[in-house]
Structure formats: C-alpha cells, structure tokens
Amino acid sequence: MRCGPSRGLDWLVLLSALLAFTAFGCSARAKTVTLNVQATQPVSVSPLEMDPGAAQLVAVGSYKVGKYKSKDLGTLQTMLERTIPMRGAPEESFRIHLVVRSFLIVHSNEKGAGLACIAWALTNPEQELVFDEQFYAARASPPLSVSGIKNRMHEGITKRVHQRAQDVLSGRPLGSPPEDTYDDFERAASRVPDRFKSELPTIFGGYDQWGNQTGIWRTVAGQSGEESARRCDRIDWYARLGIARPPDAPEPAPALPQGTGYPPTVDP
Question: Would the CA dihedral through 209, 215, 217, 220 be positive or negative?
Fold first, then answer.
C-alpha cells in the first residue's frame, strides 16, 4: 500500500486545474455599450461576416474550448445593434459593414488572452463608400474567463466602430482608440504574452516503489501563436460590397503573406 494522496485526489486536482481558467464560460454575452460620442446621423448595421479560417484556438495544458464561433459573431452583431446611437431605416441610413478577419483565443490554466483583426466600412444611403479602416483588438487578463475576454474585446470593437462612424459623419477628427483596440498589429500583440504555461498534476507516476511522493506537478508550456492573427492585406470594399469604384479611388494593394506561427509548439 502506498502512502500519500490517493489517485482519486490527483484526478480531482487535475480537473480543478484544467477548469481553473475556462470554467466560467466560453461564449460572449451581448450588452449595450456606453458611447462617448454625440450622434449626428442615423446608422444601421449589416450582417457581420467572418473570413474563412479566422478563428484560431491555442490551449496550453487546458481544455480545447473557447474558439471564436458563429455564436460569438452573433453576440457582436447584437451588441453593435443595441448600441446604435441614432437609429434609422436601413434604406435611409448610413450602414456599417464589419468583417472579423482573425480572432485568436489562447489560454492555459493560469491566464488567457485574445487578439483579433477587424475590418469595417461605412456606406451612405446611395451605396457609396464613406470610410473604412482595419484595426486590432486585444485583451489579456488572468482574472477573466474566456467569455470575459471576448466580452471586453467586443465592447472595444463596438465603441470604436460606433464612435468613429459618428466622428466621420459629423466631420470631427477621429477620437482616440477605445480601450483594447489598436491601430496596428504590433501594439495589439504587445498585450498578449509570448508564452503560456499550465501547472498540471502527475496522474500516473509521482510515487516511488515504496509509495513515497516524488512530485505531483509538471509544467506544460507553449507559444501564444499571436502571428496567426496578423493580416497584412486589406479588404477591397468596392469589390466586396459590389460598389462602383470611383475613378480617383486607389486600386487595392496586392495581398501579402499572412502571419505565420501556428500551430504553436508545445514543450512537454
């Protein structure tokens, strides 16, 4: 008979460790976001889209749950619609078009993070392109669950899109980027740790032949794979929305290679 904790206790510890970060839910929830902007024109939101292969998940020693899905995209759609500062009939209002180009979720049993590339455009009732931009959203926080990270990123995206839409329509200079949104990949990626690790109990082993405990924890480490969220090219909104390209509109730049770095390497 061996001494020390039972294997049953080991399994309980393992389960607690694996669920420590993800146990509080993985899907985002919709809410109305408070905007810091004066609305001047009615807007509406077109159905959101997500590029193929946009969603990436890196689980370092934790359950492979929390990947960004169509349900999360629907939550972002609802949040954008609930937060419209001035409503109008779709055919009479300016329209917001948004594409999730990438959305990386990475977590261990200690912490988690999210990094996304968002492209959006604003068209007028005459179906002319008024404004477009591509930006990044990022959030990393040990206290938050996967759903909490998605929620905070959705809030930042919603604020940025609506506030900048109203800035453009009123002729005001663009305001400062809201929290958790960034103009370029480098600034956003700096919010995401390069390495993640999980401390996991050793289930099989950990005891010598006499039943003495020799160590019940092992470390699983891996890279965040943040480069998978980088998008070097930009959307040609004229082609995507079927809008006639004005003679003075610049031609779309050729697509560049996307970021590499996934699947991430995981060290035993």
Answer: negative
* H helix intervals, the chain: 7-19, 70-82, 146-170, 185-189, 237-241
Q: Is 173 helix (H, G, I), strand (E, B) or coil?
A: coil
Residue 137: CB atoms within 10 A of its CB come to 27
204-205-209-214 Cα dihedral, nearest 10 degrees: -150
CA-to-CA distance for 143 and 145, rounded, in angstroms?
Answer: 7
160 burial (CB, 10 Å; 0-12 / 13-18 / 19+) is: buried
Q: Are 125 and 93 in contact (CB under 8 A)?
A: yes
Residue boundaries of the structural domains of the chain? 25-196+225-267
Calculate the alpha carbon distances from 162 to 34, 78, 86, 212, 221 in Å. 10, 13, 10, 62, 39
Cα–Cα distance measured from residue 260 to residue 140, given in angstroms and rounded to the nearest whole number: 21
- Structure confidence at residue 155 as a pLDDT band (50, 70, 90): very high
Which runs of E-coded beta strand occur in the chain?
43-45, 49-50, 55-59, 94-107, 112-123, 129-140, 181-182, 195-201, 217-223, 266-267
Query: Which pTM does this prediction carry?
Result: 0.79
Domain 25-196+225-267 class, CATH top level: alpha beta
Predicted confidence at residue 90, as pLDDT, reads 75
162: DSSP letter: H
Q: Count CA within 13 A, CB hemisphere, residue 135.
A: 23
pLDDT digits (tens, 9 = 90+) for 100-154: 999 999 998 888 999 999 999 999 999 999 999 999 999 998 767 899 999 999 9
Confidence of residue 177 (pLDDT cuts 50, 70, 90): very high
Distance CA 61, CA 40 (A): 49
